[in-house]
Amino acid sequence: MKTLATLAGLLLSLLAAPAALADVGGSCHFHGNKPASEAIVSDCATQRKNALVKAGKLPASWQSVKIEQAELVDGKKAKEWKVTFKNPAAPDAAKQTLYLFFSQPGNFIAANHTGQ
Predict the structure, then answer these.
(1) By C-alpha distance, which of 23, 59, 48, 57 is closest to 101?
(2) Where are the alpha helices (DSSP H) in the chain?
(3) What pTM does this model have?
């Protein structure tokens, strides 16, 4: 009888685990497939851009740059958020636009200056 009760408890906890992961996580890390809002993705993109500046991967001039556009686009596998920042103060003209990509639920994918 104890084994049956233990097995039933284990089974119930395994069935409940996906529901626990289906909601928004902390610090711009999300679980589940619920699409993130533009406001959430914009906030996460600003945090990610600032982290790139702090890590020295972007010049300090990017710190004050605001989002120009956030849009849902067709990615290689599924819909993705594409967030665009423009910094006319960047010395290299080819690197005046920064693109950050997020999954539809809001998880960071990549950052580049090409938009691809």
Answers:
(1) 48
(2) 2-21, 38-54
(3) 0.73
Residue 21: what pLDDT? Answer: 39
Which amino acid, 6? T
| Residues contacting 34, CB < 8 A, separation 6+ | 22, 23, 24, 105
Query: Using CA atoms, how far apart are residues 85 and 65, in angstroms rounded to an integer?
Result: 7
In this structure, what token pair is assigned to residue 114?
């090409």
Report the half-sphere exposure of 38 (CA within 13 A, side-chain side).
Answer: 10
**Tens of pLDDT, residues 65-106:** 999 999 999 888 889 999 999 999 888 889 999 999 999 999
Q: What are phi and psi for residue 56, nearest 5 degrees?
A: 80, 10
- Where is 85: in which H helix or E strand? strand 79-86
The strand order across the sheet containing 79-86 reads: 67-74, 79-86, 97-103, 108-112
Helix (H, G, I), strand (E, B) or coil at 67: strand
What's residue 6's pLDDT?
53
